[in-house]
């Protein structure tokens, strides 16, 4: 738990977060004629390069999204039509003076703006990272002076205008970007002790927080930065590690040190209760602390990861937000368990919009998984695409796919750094 | 055999005397101990409940002056707190006193959290103070 030591800068090498976005061993490719999509990690080719422009399908073998670059690759690279999947480190963001705990990409940085990443950590600060026009990532803001202890988690509102930060000091702060500066506009108090996670509902009107006090609080965000407590959900018997709203339904999921996953919904009258508990016995649940949860884009799949060194995939297509009519209502159920890839606690898992699951663990590694498209009738199964050993020097605490470019992954570690990665190659077998 | 009876009864007499002495002593010291405990715990409970009731009385006065001072949701929470406080058995202790007190404390925190008011009963040590950095 000691803070990471400051890193010595090698005078022969440029400071790490100014490295060119292309890996040093390739020679720079000729400018593409417009076929390859604009990469968010490379300098923009045209002034109005919009990050949201249609990206050609990366999975299909027919399109060669990255081909112009790979055609100029030096010997040793694989076949020209994509090659084996590879996770390449593109940037290393240093600045946090203690472990980096969590990350959040702004879902809506504004028209024409590049991607924006928030990171938070043990140094009680939140850092905002942006890509400069020359491709270099810089820390544009440091949010400090509010939290008195570690900032454990951060989350952007769906409209991208507010950032919520959850801290071990028991409070959750709301920051607003105005006049070129981030300003703390509200502080939510209520938890008895350390707040572990914060999540905005898809409508942006509800905020959920969870804590070591075993409770989950739901807040309603009102005009004028007013907040009212809507509900206090009690049910977990231990520290609650993370909360995550369903991407579509008005349903909240929490995961805990008590090894269970709980699903919460309301009956329409602010009356929230636990509609399902996914435990080890009877559900095929985890046998140890559940650390993280992530939904796929549609919300019919969910991945959880645990101290038991596995990831579990769940079918979450049942609409649990509807009140049950009589007996035999649908429920969420276990689909698949991924084990044997990480040798330590898996702290974080994230499901990309291209259906690649990333995981980060205490073995300092990042793993990527995708669904096995087979004709077997037993149901979906998932396979490991690659394992990036020594992704960081210490535990990987958080992995997050970039919403504007689903091939870009950010990771945060106990080593105090945040790294950006790019997924290359063909994901199909 | 009549002259033997007082001898047999002597044992019983001494037992009764001893019992009475012990009973009288116990009454005195038990009452004193109970008074000390009652002063300490009872006073603490009373003080805390009184604090919440006092806050509630202020809020109720505000509502009488200005119906719209608080949202409907917060007013509902205040009514719920009032019910919890009046249900607390001050004179006839029941078994789930700890749970009732926890409920009251939580409801109070929900209200102050929603009002954004930094208000708390100072007398009670918070559970977080002695805890260390966590993961």
Automatic annotation (TrEMBL), chain A:
Disordered: region residues: 1-69
GO terms under biological process: iron-sulfur cluster assembly
CDD domains per UniProt: WD40
Residue spans of the WD repeats: 93-130, 147-176, 188-229, 233-264, 283-315, 389-423
Keyword Zinc: no
Keywords from the named record: Repeat, WD repeat
Gene Ontology cellular-component terms listed: cytosolic [4Fe-4S] assembly targeting complex
Function (record text): Essential component of the cytosolic iron-sulfur (Fe/S) protein assembly machinery. Required for the maturation of extramitochondrial Fe/S proteins.
The protein, known as: Probable cytosolic iron-sulfur protein assembly protein CIAO1 homolog
Source organism of this protein record: Aegilops tauschii subsp. strangulata
UniProtKB/TrEMBL annotation, chain B:
PANTHER family, sorted: GEO13458P1 (PTHR28532), ORAL CANCER OVEREXPRESSED 1 (PTHR28532:SF1)
Residue span, Essential protein Yae1 N-terminal domain: 18-56
UniProt xrefs under InterPro entries: Essential_protein_Yae1_N (IPR019191), LTO1_adapter (IPR052436)
Entry protein name: Essential protein Yae1 N-terminal domain-containing protein
Top-level taxon in the UniProt lineage: Eukaryota
Family to which this protein belongs: Belongs to the LTO1 family.
